[in-house]
Amino acid sequence: MKFPAPVAIEWIANLIGATVIGNKVAMATGINEIHKVEPGDLVFVDHPKYYDKCIQSAADFIIINKETSFPEGKALLVVEQPFEAYLKIVRHFRPFIPATKLVSDTAQIGE
Question: What is the pTM for the complete model shown?
């Protein structure tokens, strides 16, 4: 998911209650799952088995549950519950809006 505009990594850290280690002045452009990340994206990891895969991925920002080594230019956002932090970011930028009608006003019927 891409953000509507780049977001300061410090702002995101404040949103999720994370400590930033590394590049504190960068801007995140989106948040994605590990198999879809691009440069500028955030990704989360909460198990040591997958630390290296996330840290070496194209993602520039890693939401993680412990401090570890990482490449220069990237940043770790250290929180106790990385998945919960990931969900909080997603919910902030794409809040759930329940359907109130059976058919959307923007629906188009084909031939």
Answer: 0.85
